[in-house]
């Protein structure tokens, strides 16, 4: 069964965006995954197609109304068990582990917020899982949704030419990825590490692991602490 993504947004024209090109675009053409967008504004009931209102209690900005968003979600997910994600800077950070779980399913429903956010009641009533792509705030959830889908689609079976490509990269095994090199052998006075030309595959794998550990320790020591806690737990 092909992976099916549904995106709820006020700007459906932003999709498929970059996912219509390269590996993801070719996979879509082959029917390995599909994408449909739902215009949230279609579920407004007034003549101005209003989708937001002022925050309860006062404050700046506007908030997406729960009744309208709920109708949009229901239209996209009737008798549907796909996970429902809400792109949100306050959500749990997206991890490669979570991406692999999502990629193993039938698909995903992604809600793209705008303005100040989404009424908390619809988040709770419709079981939306808040997901963040990093400690930053975007103008809307659409760019984040494209990133989530990119991460998922590239590891769907058959999308990458070599399925092993997805097993030797950052965050697989709890480490950042080791450095990469290619020809020419010497460039601006910098040589490819001699071990990579040795033909000793065991030594090469050991070097790559050591480099991955070194980079992770330098840049993301939290990943090593997390791995240690899992092991001890």
Automatic annotation (TrEMBL):
UniProt-listed Enzyme Commission number(s): 2.1.1.228
Pfam families reported for this sequence: tRNA_m1G_MT
Catalytic reactions on record: guanosine(37) in tRNA + S-adenosyl-L-methionine = N(1)-methylguanosine(37) in tRNA + S-adenosyl-L-homocysteine + H(+)
Residues reported to bind S-adenosyl-L-methionine: 113
GO terms, molecular function: tRNA (guanine(37)-N1)-methyltransferase activity
SUPFAM superfamilies given in the database record: alpha/beta knot
Keyword terms of this UniProt record: Cytoplasm, Methyltransferase, S-adenosyl-L-methionine, Transferase, tRNA processing
CDD domains: TrmD-like
Cellular localization per UniProt: Cytoplasm
Keyword Cytoplasm: yes
Secretion signal, residue range per the UniProt entry: none
Biological processes, Gene Ontology terms: methylation
Span of domain tRNA methyltransferase TRMD/TRM10-type: 4-226
First-level EC class: transferase
Protein family membership: Belongs to the RNA methyltransferase TrmD family.
NCBIfam families for this protein: PRK00026.1, trmD
Described purpose of this protein according to its UniProt entry: Specifically methylates guanosine-37 in various tRNAs.
Subunit relationships: Homodimer.
Name of the protein described by the UniProt record: tRNA (guanine-N(1)-)-methyltransferase
Organism: Rhizobium laguerreae
Lineage, uppermost ranks: Bacteria, Pseudomonadati, Pseudomonadota, Alphaproteobacteria, Hyphomicrobiales
Gene transcribed to yield this protein: trmD
């Amino acid at each position: 069964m092909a992976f099916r993504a549904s995106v709820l947004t006020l700007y459906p024209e932003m999709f498929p965006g970059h996912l219509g090109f390269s590996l993801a675009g070719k996979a879509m053409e082959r029917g390995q995954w599909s994408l449909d967008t739902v215009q949230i504004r279609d579920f407004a009931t007034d003549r101005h197609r209003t989708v937001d209102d002022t925050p309860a209690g006062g404050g700046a900005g506007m908030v997406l109304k729960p009744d309208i968003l709920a109708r949009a979600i229901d239209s996209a997910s009737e008798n549907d068990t796909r996970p429902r994600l809400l792109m949100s800077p306050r959500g749990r950070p997206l991890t490669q582990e979570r991406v692999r779980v999502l990629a193993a399913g039938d698909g995903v429903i992604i809600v793209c917020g705008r303005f100040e956010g989404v009424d908390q009641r619809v988040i709770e009533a419709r079981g939306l899982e808040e997901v963040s792509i990093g400690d930053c705030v975007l103008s809307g959830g659409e760019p984040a949704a494209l990133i989530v889908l990119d991460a998922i689609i590239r590891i769907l079976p058959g999308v990458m030419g070599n399925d092993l490509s997805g097993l030797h990269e950052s965050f697989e095994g709890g480490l950042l990825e080791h450095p990469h090199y290619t020809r020419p052998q010497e460039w601006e006075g910098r040589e490819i590490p001699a071990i990579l030309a040795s033909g000793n595959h065991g030594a090469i794998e050991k070097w790559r692991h050591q480099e991955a550990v070194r980079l992770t320790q330098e840049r993301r020591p939290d990943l090593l602490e997390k791995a240690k806690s899992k092991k001890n737990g």
